[in-house]
Design brief:
Elements: H1 3-9, H2 26-37, E1 48-53, E2 58-59, E3 68-74, H3 80-97, E4 101-105, E5 109-110, H4 112-116, E6 121-129, H5 148-151, H6 158-165
Antiparallel strand pairs: 1-3, 2-5, 3-6, 4-6
Helix pairs in contact: 1-3
The chain binds flavin mononucleotide.
Length: 170
């Protein structure tokens, strides 16, 4: 997936919580695994690990019926949450750009077995799969976000700030 396609997705993506239960196929899953291995870190000295897991390995699921999840693990050094956010958002954009649905999940948790399967600390989940609806908005006015003037007084960098303004938020 080229970076232009990912960038353009920033302005139309949306979180998906209602999934079609059809399989995304083994080729797609393989591509996803490859993508997980090639995510660009923001802070390259922080070790990270990503695992694809199934619904029976996730607890506290609320309002989310995804057939697959990514569990993200990290070393807990300075900046580790920003780094994991930077990396996994590349997956969120990749899913949307390829027509799949995805959603960041801070409340659901992987099982103890999954947490103990990594030497790193479990940080966050992301659900993904075939979406029942198109995973896109038709206009940025459909994002429920504050305006730029409400979140910053920085001037002259509106293109960069607009991408940050539209980013997923807890
Ligand atoms: C760190 C983080 C944690 C989140 N946790 C959850 C969650 O537990 N459950 C959920 O349904 N959505 C969760 N979300 C998704 C947000 O609710 C979603 O991004 C927000 O509603 C904005 O909607 P949009 O992504 O469609 O623009 C989370 C997002 C982030 C960035």
């Amino acid at each position: 997936m080229n970076e232009t396609a990912l960038y353009e997705t920033i302005f139309k993506r949306k979180s998906i919580r209602d999934y079609d239960q059809t399989s995304i196929g083994s080729n797609r899953l393989e591509e996803i695994s490859k993508n997980l291995q090639s995510l660009k870190p923001l802070l390259a000295d922080i070790k990270t690990e990503f695992k694809v897991i199934s619904p029976n390995q996730v607890t506290r699921k609320i309002n989310n019926n995804a057939p697959s999840y990514i569990a993200a693990f990290s070393e807990t050094k300075d900046g580790y949450k920003v780094n994991i956010g930077f990396m996994l958002q590349q997956m969120d954009l990749y899913f949307s750009a390829s027509g799949l649905g995805s959603c960041w999940l801070g409340i659901p948790q992987p099982t103890k077995e999954v947490k103990e399967s990594s030497n790193l600390e479990f940080i966050i989940l992301m659900s993904f799969g075939n979406s029942k609806e198109a995973p896109y908005r038709t206009s940025t006015s459909e994002f429920h976000r504050k305006s730029l003037s409400e979140i910053t007084n920085i001037e002259g960098a509106n293109d960069l700030l607009e991408a940050a303004r539209l980013a997923p938020q807890p």
